[in-house]
Design brief:
Belongs to the complex I NDUFB7 subunit family. With 113 residues, this protein is mainly alpha-helical. The protein contains four helices and no strands. Helix 1 runs antiparallel to helix 4.
């Protein structure tokens, strides 16, 4: 496997599609930090929480679905980071130098791009 082929394997961003639209998230008053690929599960969870007065034993099915989605996103990011580190290590062993600014990007691709 060449370095160019390995570099193509590291795709930034999530493989999950963005289901909730920006308008839906604004309408449901989803806080900006929570507007990710799991927001479509957070909207019904928050509705259930309000309806059930935030009782912790209520809305378990909705909460489990949302938390599972968030867990999968975190695991996907961790896997991407591991691939990036392995690629950098291989480059370092091969004696290649990275071009200026070609490190890990601070901001990944946008959800709707």
């Amino acid at each position: 496997m060449s370095a160019a082929a390995a570099e193509e394997d590291v795709k930034l961003g999530s493989s999950k599609p963005m289901i909730a639209t920006q308008a839906e998230m604004v309408e449901e008053r989803v806080p900006i930090p929570y507007r990710d690929q799991c927001a479509h599960l957070l909207i019904p969870l928050n509705k259930c929480r309000v309806k059930e007065f935030y009782l912790p034993w209520k809305c378990e099915v909705e909460r489990h679905g949302y938390e599972k989605c968030e867990y999968e996103l975190v695991m996907e990011r961790m896997l991407q980071m591991q691939k990036i580190r392995e690629l950098e290590e291989r480059r370092k062993k091969a004696g290649q130098t990275q071009p200026q600014g070609a490190g890990i990007p601070i901001i990944g691709s946008t959800a709707n791009a």
